[in-house]
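FIELD: query
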Amino acid sequence: MSLFTSLEKQIVLVTGGYQGIGRQVVTTFQNEQAIVVVADLSYQNTELKQISNQEYQIHLDVSDEISVKNLAAQLKTRNLTPNILVNVAGISTMDYLLESKTSDFDKTISVNTRGTYLVTKHIVSLMVAANRPGKVVLIASQAGKNGYRAMSAYVASKHAVLGLTKTLAIEVAKNQINVNAVCPGIIETSMKHRERKDGAKIRGLTPDDIEKEDNSQVPLGRTGTPKDVANVVLFLASPLSDYMTGQGINVTGGMTMN
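FIELD: result
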């Protein structure tokens, strides 16, 4: 028997759920019989489309408030106000700060920080209006706790996500809505594989060099998988975490311990 049977028929909104960590989060909740609304830039339909008994899909640009308001309005109209919100959507750009493009910085902040702010603002407003307990999980990063070469925009954006987590947790505690963040380490996704190529070019190394370096920094001896992250998201969305709020939980194999 699952520890999370109470999630059956719960409505979960996952941003950035088309691939990578986001898609694994979708699958993990569906395995617990939840109904998942998957909102992602990759989808073309701006109206909610039912794919199955457990999945709806819709186009979402998290950095565009009109797009976010459209999602919120449709969720309300379709009686799909989430019990659980999981903000996964995010991007990264790479270059040394002094050589970086301001446009890359702006783009990263727009998606990772502004996007998290907009989705959280409009969706949690629906959750509060529904007058029931809920869970919010924001995907931050160990880059929200540390600094990493050639990733100033990403590091800044994820520090901001942790700030949003702590503030919102205080503000909606009275509504019995828990707000926590997951801070993944090095997770094997297409974004990480692209970062290895970009980082290798910047540093005069090869992607294999970067991969070896990655593995050498993890006490548990391996990099992570999307499932490693999704399992912790599931925990934070479940009743098992009812007395936790405002936390940034590391999923890094021991690479970050603070």
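FIELD: remark
Strands lie at 11-15, 35-40, 49-52, 55-59, 84-87, 134-139, 177-184, 248-251.
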